[in-house]
Amino acid sequence: MDRICELCHDMYSHQRPNMRADCRSGCFRNEDFKRCLRLFRPMTSLIHNKSRKSRSIK
């Protein structure tokens, strides 16, 4: 969880210098952390499509 906040801070520190602390506040139970999670979550539709394509090639 901490890594998510670090990545988010790296991307947004020019706009929000306290992003890392804001993301971690409340033991990661806040909207900033949720936004960061959405930003860095795996795109399951892309993973699913790649998996499907690799099966069709074999």
Automatic annotation (TrEMBL):
* GO cellular component terms attached to this protein's record: extracellular region
Q: Which GO terms describe its biological process?
A: circadian rhythm
Q: Which Gene3D superfamilies match?
A: Crustacean CHH/MIH/GIH neurohormone
Q: Does the keyword Oxidoreductase apply?
A: no
- Magnesium as a keyword of this entry, yes or no, is no
Q: Which InterPro entries match?
A: Crust_neurhormone_CS, Crust_neurohorm, Crust_neurohorm_sf
Instruction: Mention any Pfam family matching this sequence.
Output: Crust_neurohorm
Which family does the entry's similarity section mention?
Belongs to the arthropod CHH/MIH/GIH/VIH hormone family.
- What is this protein's record name? Uncharacterized protein
Which PROSITE patterns does the UniProt record give? CHH_MIH_GIH
User: Which superkingdom, per the lineage?
Assistant: Eukaryota
Record keywords: Disulfide bond
Q: Tell me, what is one Gene Ontology molecular-function annotation carried by this entry? A: neuropeptide hormone activity
